[in-house]
Amino acid sequence: MEAIKYYLGRYSLAVNIATNIFLVLLCVISYAALIMLYCSKGMHLRSFTYIEDSNNLPPTTFVPVLGILLTGATSALITRSVEHSLWISLTCDNVGSNINKVLTAAESRQRAQWSVSPFARLLYTFDGQSWVLRLSGVLLFCTAILNPVLLYGVRPGVSKFDTVEARAPSVPMFAGFTSTIDFWSVLDNPTILASLVSMNNLSAPASSVCSNDACSVSARTTALQAECKASSQNYTGESEIYCSTLGTKTCVGPFLSSGSNYIEIANFTTGPSNNCDGVLALDVAFEEHKCPSGDFAIIFGAWVTGMYNQTLHKVECNLYIGNVTVTQTGNSAPTLDRKSFTNFTNPISISGNYTEGLAQDSDDIFFFDNILPWMWQMEYLIIRKSWTHNIVIDNPYTFAFDGVSSFGNNTLGSYLLRGPGFQNQALLHLTADADGVAKTLERNFDMATLLAFVRQPYAGSVNITTTHESKVWLYNEKVLGILAVPAIATLLVMCMCWRIKGDEVVIGYDPLQIARRAEEILEKREHDRRLSRLSRGPYVAVRNVR
């Protein structure tokens, strides 16, 4: 121990220089660490970013440690600088310096107390002679709030980022529109189900792709889209036939039924568009038909509303095959964007060799099973044979009503023209207007597309976006403004008081030595003042004589 004391005493100047340099480096490191912690997120340790990894060293512990180091190093550096400056000023060899010209016994005592007492720093603000020490004392006192302010800028939060998984189609494009086979003889057309779901104001169920709110899907899937237009006119009551402007062979009527006096009040049918060639053969095999890309069928219907002043309403729809964008978030119902619909680029070819040589999972089978029923002017369509059984599908939009009876798909027609409460209405009471039916038909086919997506979401290209959430520490870099307080105090004192001496000059806090040296300085200053006055005496006398 004595050897250490001897070494420190002998090399006190070098030790003091090394101590001050160490304190400066400690301050610089603390500033740099705090700035990097709050501003450079990419350089963080995991425990400084993710809360679940904060068991090792959370920022709520690391920040106070840095704050304590910075506050302590700043206080030690400033007080040492002031102390060294005071003792150097009290040395007789420095009596001629500018600072000694204003240094009094009271000022010496106040500076000595400034270096050891926080309260004395505040008092020095009111009657001290050095503005640097007055300002630095207040700033050094304010460093007490450094840690609370820095901790205010650290809070827990949630970080989110998305990952996208792209999947190519893995099933035929029409797989979602497939019908359910019942005992190899009857097909349940899914479009009827879609129409009933839509007209009852129900939503499509969620697909199996997403099961929670962190998942969302955007699919480019096969779609059926109807574009309908409506018109109305006064009904004259005469027997007339009305034909669609979209297909010259697609007509309804006459509205006066043959063999009876009952007037037909509704008639809907379907057929090929004008641009489709070929002739329908009423058998299992069909001749080849080619339609424009995406344009494959039309729906045309007319109906009468009103008991006396009757109005004839007409609606006609073009049916298209193409692709549309379907989106779904979590377990919510999927939705489609009608504006995103695009037609198929290649013409549709419908071959009569349907029962020969087709793979059971090919697009052709799904196309024939689910698209043809809307193309032809038939109540139902025999589309193929399976062993010895004919499989049939009702045409959803071929139906008619007269005053007392109906034929075809009267359930769907009743929903379409009279609404869900049609069971309590007479056949004559048709209330739907043309615009409403046109919009309903468009929604029905949109629902068919949505239900097809729900059945087979991977019939098209699918992008699955998963949102990942992590509990993280969030940093508010604005609180770093508090670092200006110790920084300004340090710079002011170091610029004005940065002088280092050994222990032979800097004794420490010794009030008796301070008083003695201050008295010596005052006596020396008074002696110098007298000598200066005497040296100017003859010159003053001569001036007085003159």
What is the count of β-strands?
Answer: 17
**Helicity range:** 25-40%
**What structural class do the secondary elements suggest?**
alpha+beta
**What fraction of the residues are assigned to beta strands by DSSP?**
15-25%
- Please give the count of helices: 15
Major β-sheet profile:
9 strands, antiparallel
Number of domains: 2
Poorly predicted regions are 94-101, 181-187, 257-262, 278-287, 351-361, 373-391, 539-546
Key traits:
546 residues; alpha+beta; 2 domains; 17 strands; disordered C terminus
Overall description:
It is a single chain. By secondary structure, the protein is an alpha+beta fold. It has two domains: 2-156 and 473-545, no CATH class; 172-278 and 293-341 and 394-451, no CATH class. The chain is 38% helix and 24% strand. The chain has helices at residues 2-10, 12-39, 46-49, 59-89, 105-114, 118-127, 131-142, 146-152, 190-199, 363-370, 410-418, 434-455, 484-497, 511-535, 537-545, and strands at residues 154-167, 180-182, 186-188, 215-234, 242-243, 251-252, 266-271, 289-291, 295-305, 311-329, 335-343, 348-350, 380-386, 389-394, 399-401, 406-408, 461-475. Strands 1, 4, 7, 9, 10, 11, 15, 16 and 17 form a nine-stranded antiparallel sheet that branches. Strands 2-3 form a two-stranded antiparallel sheet. Helix 7 packs antiparallel against helix 13 (484-497). It starts with a helix and ends with a helix. The model is unreliable at 94-101, 181-187, 257-262, 278-287, 351-361, 373-391 and 539-546 (pLDDT under 50).
